[in-house]
Amino acid sequence: MDIEEKLTLLDGRGSDSEYDAVKELSSSLGLEFPGLLLAKYRSSKKWGERLSCVYHASKYAVASQDAYELAIEALKDKSKKVRYQACLLLALAQKPTALKPLEVLLSNQDSSEDAKAAIEAIKLKNHNYFADRDHSGMVKLNVQQYHS
Q1: What does the pLDDT average to over 91-112?
Q2: Residues spanned by the domain of 106
Q3: How many H helices and E strands in the chain?
């Protein structure tokens, strides 16, 4: 199975075949993988596929400019679930340049709380605050990060 065939398995359903395809693509392509996710996101008409691209790019939030660009683009997605995942990825990335694009989302009724949480996580330099919105210290995000 080639790269394109594996990418077609990224449909957001969380199947074993999707997981296996991502695992294989990630291990064989390394930092090239987020670029493929960005390209797939841009060409995808289905929200589940777009969600899958952003979700699987989260591992590369710190290491990859393509993952960051994917999240920035996904903030404008028509799907609330995709926008949520984009906010999460940006909270993980911890880049202050994401603040302005996130602030635009504050006016979106469906996503304003997610944008606010990502902004706080970035400003306070703690990605866990995206999930721990009360800053209790009791909630931690456990996201495997890519290390070259």
Answers
A1: 98
A2: 3-130
A3: 8, 0
